[in-house]
Amino acid sequence: MTPSKRIGPPKGVAESTEAARMARLGGRFTQPSETPPPVSETGVPASYTPPKRRRGEPEGMTRRTYYLPKQVAEDLDAAVEQLLAATAGRATKHEALAAILTAGCRQAPALAAGLRAALLAELAGQQEAGQ
Asked: Where are the annotated segments for Disordered (predicted)?
């Protein structure tokens, strides 16, 4: 048989005081508070404050996640490295990415026409194979 654990008084309370004796003997049998803590309409306690974000977004900036084919992502990384090398490291990575994406956005109409033509050719090929 294992020896029973001795529970001491709360921190800051002398061992010989009545408060220490009550904490040891009856602390777990006390009645719960009559009034529950206030709760908001969403069910979150009113005293809750959300944790602060670890990294804030600079003014005018945002974070996005895009899924790309692996080769496209590698090509994008290479293009960013090329721009960073061309500026001798004076440009930041987000500036290099912004320059690449801005150039791509300017070419969107031409890219859309090329993509549309490729999709139509693929569809025509599927229809010929199905006949």
From this structure: 24-63
Residue-wise burial string across 56-73, b where 16 or more C-beta atoms lie within 10 A, e elsewhere:
eeeeeeeeeeeeeeeeee
Tell me the pTM: 0.51
Query: Is the pLDDT assigned to residue 83 strictly greater than 70?
Result: yes
Q: At what angle do helices 93-106 and 108-130 cross, to 10 degrees?
A: 60
Question: Which of 62, 91, 66, 63 is CA-nearest to residue 76?
Answer: 66
Angstrom distance (rounded) from CA 108 to CA 92:
25
Taking only Cα atoms into account, the Rg of the chain, rounded to an integer number of angstroms, comes to: 33
Please name which of 62, 51, 54 lies closest in space to residue 101, comparing C-alpha atoms. 62
Give the Cα separation of 111 and 4 in Å (integer): 77
